[in-house]
Amino acid sequence: MGLVKVELEVSGDDGARRAVEFLVDSGAVYSVLPARDWRALGLRPKRTLSFALADGTTIRRRISECRFHYEGIDAVSPVVLGQGADDALLGAVTLETLGLVLSPFDRTLRPMRMRLAALA
């Protein structure tokens, strides 16, 4: 399918915003924010989780949360606080929180078709 990148704005509690280009990775659970970006927003770690990499290596990363803004939609989502050379990734939880899916046909983010269970 190829790589899909999209620019979103992210913000912290103080309202400061930054534009960040994310690689859309719907196979990743959480989004990753590079160190230069989360530090500029003043994000603080809330917990630490372990992650398995594709090669089987396990790493630990700190988790915070920030607000993601995309084409008039905004929502708070957990975010991995990147270290070193960690790149910006847009993961499944953030996509779902924003109500978006990746269209495989034109490689764009589209509104998710929402469903509610019917009550009998």
What is the average of the pLDDT values?
92
The domain tally reads 1
**Largest sheet: number of strands, sense, barrel closure:** 7 strands, mixed
Named at the architecture level, the CATH assignment is: Beta Barrel
Please compute the radius of gyration using only Cα atoms: 15 Å
Beta-strand residue percentage: over 45%
Q: From the 3D structure, determine the CATH topology.
A: Cathepsin D, subunit A, domain 1
CATH class: Mainly Beta
List the helices and strands and how they pair.
Elements: E1 5-11, E2 17-24, E3 31-33, H1 35-41, E4 47-52, E5 58-70, E6 73-81, E7 89-90, H2 92-98, E8 100-102, E9 109-111
Parallel strand pairs: 2-7, 3-6
Antiparallel strand pairs: 1-2, 1-5, 4-5, 5-6, 8-9
Tell me what the structure shows.
With 120 residues, the chain is mostly beta strands. It contains 2 helices and 9 strands, in the order E-E-E-H-E-E-E-E-H-E-E. The strands form 2 sheets. Strands 1, 2, 3, 4, 5, 6 and 7 form a 7-stranded mixed sheet that branches. A two-stranded antiparallel ribbon has the order 8-9. The protein is globular and about 45 Å long. It starts with a strand and ends in a 9-residue tail after the last strand.
In short:
The protein has 120 residues and is mainly β. 12% of the residues lie in helices and 45% in strands. It has a single domain, classed as Beta Barrel (Cathepsin D, subunit A, domain 1).
Comma- or semicolon-separated keywords:
single chain, Cathepsin D, subunit A, domain 1, 12% helix, 120 residues, mainly beta, seven-stranded mixed beta sheet
